[in-house]
Automatic annotation (TrEMBL):
Entry similarity comment: Belongs to the N(4)/N(6)-methyltransferase family.
Classification via Gene3D superfamilies: 1.20.1260.30, Vaccinia Virus protein VP39
InterPro entries, per database record: D12N6_MeTrfase_N (IPR022749), DNA_Adenine_Mtase (IPR051537), DNA_methylase_A-5 (IPR003356), DNA_methylase_N6_adenine_CS (IPR002052), SAM-dependent_MTases_sf (IPR029063), T1MK-like_N_sf (IPR038333)
GO biological process: DNA restriction-modification system; methylation
One family name in Pfam for this protein: N6_Mtase
Enzyme class: transferase
Listed GO MF terms: DNA binding; N-methyltransferase activity; site-specific DNA-methyltransferase (adenine-specific) activity
Recorded catalytic activity of this chain's protein: a 2'-deoxyadenosine in DNA + S-adenosyl-L-methionine = an N(6)-methyl-2'-deoxyadenosine in DNA + S-adenosyl-L-homocysteine + H(+)
Protein name per Swiss-Prot or TrEMBL: site-specific DNA-methyltransferase (adenine-specific)
Organism: Nitrosococcus watsoni (strain C-113)
Domain DNA methylase adenine-specific: 153-452
Superkingdom assignment: Bacteria
Length: 483
């Protein structure tokens, strides 16, 4: 229904001088989509209030509402081109009036978990990159054709938006930064099995793929108004440092049906993990922290194990912020399992002693498009030490790439074997007592892999080549005899 509209929006943005990449297209589409969503939400709430005979106070002042500046209509509902701003007038209005007004919501909001605060935060972080008011006018008229009223419409828009995020991940060098493959996330959620009433956290939220998929998993289980309310406001929590990812994460959650996402725009690692109280901790953590980043010395001071590697600081953060009895699934570089530096060894020791690291999923190369690192997923529960680690080596039997990514079928065997930690050609267990206490090496070494056929001796290969040559010469001789 809306797919062609999205394509048309991208076509306009490709010709817009201020937008240079897939990242710009997604960012600029996001702020416009957000304002259209907000207008649809307000119109719906106003109608509901009217039916109940109650007043409704609009969040956005009339002068800055979508129907006033973005899509003015005539009495018959047709687009009013006479009233619609365009060209330089539209650019001036957006830059000098609309954005400053929307940025001011942050100061006026009563709390960070309100939609008002989110408006202020989003428009404090991004700016319009449109240089042509005619391009912007074209995009506004296209976005006005999209509607967020029914669940079906939101569902389709969320799928189209996910595709944009995926393309954005493919466009950048760091594919995993914006996009974790959805089949991988769904497999993690199947193992962790979050329940309504549990708080789910991602401290490196990115485009909020983990939280959105967790919502999709839990939404069908909600069978009362109070459970739906719990999912809306007391279930999903996230933090994101980068402005663009923060905006996209909020928009993605909104499109999936969460009206005011509990996502904070902050550097998660700037918090001192020693300050966390049990009451603030989470029952479930799902995350794919950034690989290979470097954090400054003052940030490292917040952690008992000092390291510049961002992912290792995040892992300490997740161990600390998990409730006793809580469950986590964290994607990390596979070198974490075997690095010999002091910080890596200390962190593996800490993980094994404070948590039950029950499962390690070894992902194939190419799982993350654009990221040249191999990854594993660590599944652990807080509160009891590890006795035994079950490994599974995911092998889809093909090379992964942009046109051939992981799919849900690839995880079927893993999900079938994992509950009982069964041995197979791709899975095995290691007792912690058998792990070297000095190196704490947890690397993936499959003892059940069928032995590869040993390489033949060079003499045998040469002899076979000579025999084939002789056979070819005889055939040629026979052919000559026939001529």
């Amino acid at each position: 229904m809306f797919e062609q509209t999205f394509k048309n929006i991208d076509d306009v943005l490709r010709k817009e001088a201020g937008c240079n990449s897939e990242l710009d297209y997604t960012e600029q589409t996001s702020w416009i989509l957000f304002l259209k969503y907000l207008d649809d939400l307000e119109q719906e709430r106003a109608m509901e209030a009217e039916l109940k005979g109650q007043p409704y106070t609009f969040i956005i002042d009339e002068a800055h509402r979508w129907s006033r500046w973005a899509a003015p209509k005539q009495a018959d509902g047709a687009f009013d081109h006479d009233q619609a701003l365009t060209g330089d007038d539209l650019i001036d209005y957006v830059n000098q009036e609309l954005f400053p007004y929307l940025q001011g919501f942050k100061q006026r909001a009563t709390a960070p978990d309100t939609i008002e605060y989110k408006i202020g935060e989003i428009f404090g972080e991004i700016k319009s990159k449109f240089q042509s008011g005619y391009s912007l006018r074209d995009v506004l008229e296209l976005v006005d054709q999209l509607h967020f009223r029914s669940q079906k419409e939101k569902h389709e828009l969320s799928h189209l938006y996910e595709t944009k995020i995926k393309n954005m991940g493919n466009a950048g060098r760091n594919g995993g930064e914006y996009y974790t493959p959805r089949p991988l996330i769904r497999a993690l959620i199947q193992v962790i099995q979050p329940k309504i009433g549990e708080r789910i956290y991602d401290g490196a939220v990115g485009s909020a793929g983990f939280l959105c998929e967790a919502y999709e998993h839990l939404r069908p289980q909600a069978d009362s108004v109070s459970q739906l309310q719990t999912l809306q406001s007391r279930t999903f929590y996230g933090k994101e440092k980068k402005s663009l990812a923060y905006v996209i994460g909020i928009m993605n959650m909104i499109l999936h049906g969460i009206e005011a996402p509990n996502i904070l725009h902050t550097n998660t690692l700037a918090e001192n993990i020693r300050d966390w109280q049990e009451k603030d901790r989470f029952e479930v953590i799902l995350a794919n922290p950034p690989f290979g980043g470097k954090e400054r010395k003052e940030v490292q001071q917040n952690f008992p194990i000092k390291t510049g590697e961002t992912a290792f600081l995040f892992l300490q953060h997740f161990i600390k912020t998990l409730k006793a009895g809580g469950r986590a699934a964290v994607v990390i570089k596979n070198t974490f399992l075997s690095n010999s530096d002091n910080a890596s060894r200390a962190l593996r020791k800490e993980l094994l002693e404070s948590c039950n690291l029950h499962t390690v999923l070894d992902c194939p190369g190419g799982t993350f498009l654009g990221a040249g690192v191999k990854t594993v997923v660590l599944f652990f529960e807080k509160g009891a030490p590890t006795r035994r680690v079950w490994y599974y080596q995911l092998d889809p039997g093909r090379s992964l790439g942009k046109t051939n990514p992981l799919n849900d079928e690839d995880f079927k065997e893993f999900l079938a074997l994992q509950p009982s930690f069964a041995d197979s050609a791709k899975s095995w267990s290691v007792e912690v007592k058998d792990i070297n206490p000095d190196t704490v090496d947890l690397s993936v070494k499959n003892p059940n892999k069928p032995e590869e056929t040993p390489l033949r001796e060079s003499e045998a290969i040469i002899a076979e080549m000579a025999a084939l040559d002789a056979e070819s010469a005889k055939i040629l001789e026979d052919i000559r005899g026939m001529l």
